[in-house]
Amino acid sequence: MANDPQKIRFAPHGGLYMAPAPDGSATGTKLPELVGDGVTAPAGYKAFGYVTEDGVTITPAIQTNPVTVWQSAVPVLYNVQSASFQVAATLQEVNQLTTELFFGAKWIAVEDKDGQPTGNYRLDLSSSPDLTEISLVVDWSQGNILYRSVIPRAMVSERGAIQLQRTNNQQYQLTIDALDYNGTLGYVLTNDDILGTNGTPAPVHNFAADVTVPNSTTNDGTAAAWTVKVQTHNQTGPVTVSLLRADNSAWDVVGSPLQADGSVTVTVPVGRESAEVKVNHAGLDLCYQAGDNSAVATVKTSCTVAGA
Known about the structure:
Layout: E1 13-20, E2 46-47, E3 57-67, E4 77-91, H1 96-103, E5 107-111, E6 117-123, E7 134-142, E8 145-159, E9 172-178, E10 187-190, E11 208-212, E12 226-233, E13 239-244, E14 251-255, E15 263-268, E16 274-281, E17 284-291, E18 298-299
Antiparallel strand pairs: 1-2, 1-7, 3-4, 4-9, 5-6, 7-8, 8-9, 8-10, 11-12, 12-15, 13-14, 13-16, 16-17, 17-18
């Protein structure tokens, strides 16, 4: 491959967003499935606001142990000891989201002896604090080339000191570490032509799908068939919904076209307690893992079987 200066990337624009970590419920946080538009916060997420000019530092790491043997002076392989995915940033805005995450506590309104608001607010620092579990999204872009890093579950692992000065503003330095989420630490989305298919960024659109299991509290896949509901949003053309066969050999189309409201109901045959559902739109495949007793399907980072 020839050297290509057009492939050098900067991050002059970006944003940092937070939401409660997904809890598996129908009303819980839904993880972003597309890269977005580079400006708008993902649905259900709130922006931290301004970050210092140093920007955001993303650090994926794998710690390994060498395996040495008698017959060689060098390791014969390396074994994974641990893995991590870390985001660090210094936040500039003094707002509720930033300060509550930094101090690890909630603001409450102070009332007078008659129960009337005083216009004051109080944040109590516990001697045995609870660690807040969050979901984090980092967006960055250069022109129409967009990137998005999603961490489904994370906690603050380190906090810097606040300096109160006459000439410099308050800053909140945070290091946030990813936690395990169904075998993943997070994922990265982009419309950049990473695979070299056409040389131009893919068009930005906001297509999304919610995949839920309507009767998750009473389903028993071993005894009866059960259903999965796919609700699509912002589609600009045909949408195809498919169900992966039990032997993972191929996909069976179960929904095309959709209902007038953009939804389709998928029936999972008796004998299966879990199922993988694929939603295809404009050349994009979104795959979900649904369980008969899980209210919300889990977004998969890749489909078990590629193609039709």
